[in-house]
Amino acid sequence: MKLKFLLLAVILGSLSLFACSDDDNYKPTQELEEALAAKYPNATRISWEKKGIYRVAEFRLNNQEVHAWFDHSGGWYMTETELKTIAALPAKVQEGFRNSEYAAWKVDDVDKVERPDSEPVYIIEVEQGKQEIDLYYSEEGILVKTVTDDHSKPEDHLTNNLPVSVKSFIQEHYPNARIIEYEIENGNLEVDILDENNKAKEVVFNNKNEWVYTKYEVLRSNVPQNVMDALSASQYKDYAIDDIDFYETPAISYYRFELESGNKEVKIDIDTTGNIMQ
Questions:
Q1: Can you tell me whether residue 275 is helix, strand or coil?
Q2: Distance (Å, rounded) from C-alpha 224 to C-alpha 235?
């Protein structure tokens, strides 16, 4: 079963724990067997293996192949269910994919991922030529984010619960938001949410769980005219706009334009007053 998706970088244990070899013939403890039985009482054809600091149960459930990840004491970290085809996805996720710009791409893998503190997410791995992208969908078929497939190992990207302060911040600043996915990137905790209007946003915290910024994609038509005027007056006025993200930070809010001209690609930040940021 392929496990190609970006989850959350491990911040537990020492590096020496990761150096231990995997064991495909691991004999689970009673704690692990009880934890699995409590969460998946109808699991059949169960086998276990050890991956670094994790214990992975592979089993069959509802005629599907499932992997459940636990720590040594039976704490649950993640469950991945292999769906294999688009047809196995919820109807709204299928519709969302069919209406996306990736509908014509080759589908390489389809999975459902469940973790603590977040809603189930459906990951469709697609490829076109040398490009490989993982598409993350909510149960309603909303494309939450796209991630360039980096072929990382899942044991390098697991964590358990989100910090209480992070969940409190999201609840306070984004009422009724739903947490869909979270990961650590470059030392920062990135939490993907759908706000009360089902707008996908990425809320980022530093290693002290302090809010760093929130970003989300915006349409050109929603960018204020003074910001567009500043771009038109810049040296990049003849570049094509490839993407626009809006950033909210504790100090300032700004628009980030990804521009291209031929083989040249640049990023330019313009704050809400129309000033180009250096």
A1: coil
A2: 19
Residue entry with tokens 């005027």: 229
Only one residue has tokens 């180009």, namely 276
> In whole angstroms, what is the distance from residue 262 CA to residue 260 CA?
6
Q: How many residues does the chain have?
A: 278
User: Residue 48: how many CB atoms within 10 A of its CB?
Assistant: 21
Q: pTM value? A: 0.79
In this structure, the number of other CB atoms found within 10 A of the CB of residue 59 comes to 18
pLDDT of the chain along its 278 residues, tens only? 444 433 333 333 333 344 344 666 789 999 999 999 999 999 999 999 998 889 999 999 999 999 999 999 999 999 999 998 999 999 999 999 999 999 999 999 999 999 999 999 999 999 999 899 999 999 999 999 998 876 665 555 566 678 999 999 999 999 999 999 888 788 889 999 999 999 999 999 999 999 999 999 999 999 999 999 999 999 999 999 999 999 999 999 999 999 999 999 999 999 999 999 97
